[in-house]
Amino acid sequence: MIDPIHVIGGGLAGSEAAWQIAQAGVPVILHEMRPVRGTDAHKTEGLAELVCSNSFRSDDAGANAVGLLHQEMRSLGSLIMAKGDAHQVPAGGALAVDRDGFSSAVTAALEADPLVTVERGEVAGLPPEDWTSVIVATGPLTSPALAEAILSLTGEKELAFFDAIAPIVYRESIDMDVAWFQSRYDKIGPGGNGKDYINCPMNKEQYEAFIDALIAGDKTDFKEWEANTPYFDGCLPIEVMAERGRETLRHGPMKPVGLTDPNNPLVKPHAIVQLRQDNALGTLFNMVGFQTKLKYGDQAKVLRMIPGLENAEFARLGGLHRNTYLNSPKLLDPTLRLKAMPRLRFAGQITGCEGYVESAAIGLMTGRMAAAERLGHPVEPLPGTTALGALINHITGGHIETIDEGPRSFQPMNVNFGLFPPLEIAPKSEDGKRLRGPAKTLAKKNALTDRARADLAIWLANAQMPAAAE
Ligand SMILES: Cc1cc2nc3c(=O)[nH]c(=O)nc-3n(C[C@H](O)[C@H](O)[C@H](O)COP(=O)(O)OP(=O)(O)OC[C@H]3O[C@@H](n4cnc5c(N)ncnc54)[C@H](O)[C@@H]3O)c2cc1C
What we know:
Layout: E1 5-8, H1 12-23, E2 28-32, E3 55-58, H2 65-75, H3 79-86, E4 88-89, E5 94-97, H4 99-112, E6 116-120, E7 134-136, H5 144-154, E8 159-165, E9 168-170, E10 180-181, E11 197-202, H6 204-216, H7 238-244, E12 271-277, E13 284-287, H8 296-303, E14 314-316, E15 319-326, H9 328-331, E16 337-338, E17 341-346, H10 356-375, H11 387-398, H12 437-462
Parallel strand pairs: 1-2, 1-7, 2-6, 7-17
Antiparallel strand pairs: 3-5, 4-5, 8-15, 9-13, 9-14, 10-11, 11-12, 12-13, 16-17
Helix pairs in contact: 1-10, 2-10, 3-4
The structure holds flavin-adenine dinucleotide (FAD).
Flavin-adenine dinucleotide (FAD) binds at residues 8-14, 31-34, 39, 41-42, 51-53, 122-123, 137-143, 146, 348-350, 355-356, 359.
C-alpha cells in the first residue's frame, strides 16, 4: 500500500495536483476547507472555483505564452484544461469557461477517482508529522491559521500578505537611444558593474505633464476586505506620492542625482526613472519604486509618456492586492519543496505565480513531482525553454533578488515570453532577409513556441512518469 500524499487546498492548483497524483497511481487526500470555512472571495463549495473572471486568456499556442502553457498542460493530461475545454463558452481567441459547469466537472472527476479522497475541513496549522508528503496549495487567501504556521517556518520577511507590484517592461522595447545604463554614482556594489540600471530622463515640462497625468489617471478601488491594505514605507503607489506633493516623486523614486545623461551630459535631467534587471536572463526590467494602482489602460498610457518608454511593452503592469505568497526563489528548491521542511511542497499562487492557468500549471508539475518521489522515480526537471519550465525556473530561481531598500523584489507574475531564454538565432524571412516590426515580433514568438514544443516532446519521451491519461 502506497502512503497517501496530502494536498491542502482544492482550488486551481490543488485540484490539478491531486488529479496528477492519482493518475500516477498514488493515493491522495485533498483537504478543502470550504464549506466548513470560507474565504473572502469564494462563493461556492466547488473545487477549482474561479473567483473572478471566467477566462483562461489566450488559447493561441503559436504566439502567446499562456496559450502555449494551455497546450503543454493538455499534453500532460491536465484535468483543469480538459474540463475547461469541455465547458468552453464563446470568447474569440480566448478560452473562457462556464464557471459552474467547469467547477462541477472538476469536483465530479476528483470525487469519482478511487485514489482521491476529498476531506472537507481547514488544516489550521502545520500538517501532522505522519503526513510525509504534502502539497500546500491554499492560494492568495490562505486561512490565517495556516499562514501563521507557514510564517513560523519562513520568517516574517519571506511570506507576504499583500503584493505591491511595480510594472515590468520587456528590455527590447526600451529605446536605448534615449535611455542609458548606469548605476547611481556608478556604484558597483555587490554583484554589480556600475551600469546595472536603465535610466530614462525627463525635463521639467515632461515631468509636470507626467504628474498631471498620474493625478488624473483612473485608479482601481480596493475591495471591501482589502481596505486595510497597508501602504508601508518605501512602497507607496506613485499616484499617492504625486498627490502628496508635485515634488515628492522627484525626491523619491524619480530623483535625478548621481546620474549623467550621455546624450546631454552638461544638462542635469529634472527627474529620472530607473529600471532594474528583474530576471537572470536579462529580458525583463522592473520600474524601480513604481508600484501603482492606476487602471491598466491609463497605466500603460501614462508610463509611455516617460522618454525611452514610448513603445514600452509590459510583461506585467503594476498593482496592489491582498495576496499570500512566499519569497519562493529563496525558500523553495527546484522541485518546489520548502528547503526548511522538504516534506512540504508548494503549488499555485502561493508560490508567486499569478492567474488561474499558471496556478493550475504549477499544481500539475508539483503533483507529478510529488508522485514521482513517492514512487521512487527521479524528478526530471523540465527544460527552461518550455512554458512550464520557464515558469518554474522563474519561481525557484530565475528572479534576481535585489539589495535595495523597500518592498521585497519578487512579485507575482503571469507566464510571458520574457521568462524564456532568448533565441540563439533571430528568425529571418523566407528569403533570408532580416525581419522588422510586427513580422519580427510574430516570427520570434513562433520560434519560441516551436522550440518549446520540440523540447517538451524530447522531455516527455524520456520521462519516467507517463503523460497522464485523460
Ligand atoms: C479576488 C481575486 C480575484 C482574482 N481574479 C482573477 C482573475 O480574474 N483571473 C485570474 O487568472 N486570476 C485571478 N485571481 C488570482 C486567482 O486567485 C488565482 O489565480 C487562482 O485561483 C489561484 O489558484 P490557487 O489554487 O493557488 O488558489 P485558490 O484557487 O484560491 O485555491 C485555494 C484553496 O485553498 C483553500 N484553503 C485555503 N486555506 C486552507 C486551509 N488552511 N485548509 C484547507 N483549505 C484551505 C481555499 O478555500 C481554496 O479553495 C484572483 C484572485 C483573487 C483573490
